Every structure is written in C-alpha cells, then in structure tokens.
Amino acid sequence: MSSMGDLGREINEMRDHPKAAPANNELEQLEARLHEFFDWARGREHPEIREKFKDAFSAEPLHDDVVDALTSGRGAEVRADLPVPPPEPSESPDANS
Questions:
Q1: Rounded Cα–Cα distance for residues 75 and 73 (Å)
Q2: CB 56 within 8 A of CB 65
Q3: Cα gap 92→38, rounded to integer Å
C-alpha cells in the first residue's frame, strides 16, 4: 500500500509534469470527417446535404434547422444536434492480459 507521502509525490509529479491523455483516434477521425462534411455542405442544396449525410454517417433524418445551419456554414454550431453516435471504445491490447 502506498503511503500518503508517496501519494503526495505522485500528485506533485503529475502537477509539475502533466501528460496529455491518450488520443481516441476513432473519435478524432469522426470529428475530422464531420468537419470535412461541414466544409463540403456550405452552400449546397438541402437534398444533396441530406443524401450525403445519410451515406456517410447515419440514416436518421436531419432537421430542417440543422440543414439550414450546414448550408450557411454553421456546422460546428449544430454538431451536438447531428444524429451521429460516438464511436464505440476499442479495447486496448492489454485488456485481455
């Protein structure tokens, strides 16, 4: 069992030398695809946006206000309203050890 002194030293080490959390590559890839989609959608027709979204992300319908925002270049503002589930967490190679 660690002593309180050991715990304090570990906390100080983390504070003094922070390390970034490991990247969730699947989530980063999804966000990158969405941002590419937002750029592509700017100025496009509603049916074209809906069809491409359906093909690339989800068959769930997009609300008219979301499509309006995508057309006008405000995709980041409606990101939370898009019916895109986050990727499933992948198991680390060490999980089965």
A1: 6
A2: no
A3: 31
The neighbour count for residue 70, using CB atoms within 10 Å, is 25
Contact assessment for residue 40 and residue 52, using Cβ atoms and an 8 Å cutoff: yes
Distance CA(14)–CA(50), nearest Å, equals 46
pLDDT digits (tens, 9 = 90+) for 57-80: 989 999 999 999 999 999 999 998
Query: Does the model's pTM come out above 0.85?
Result: no
Instruction: Give the pair of three-digit tokens for residue 64.
Output: 């008219």
pLDDT in tens, 16-68: 988 876 667 888 888 899 999 999 999 999 999 999 999 999 899 999 999 99
CA distance 34 to 77: 12
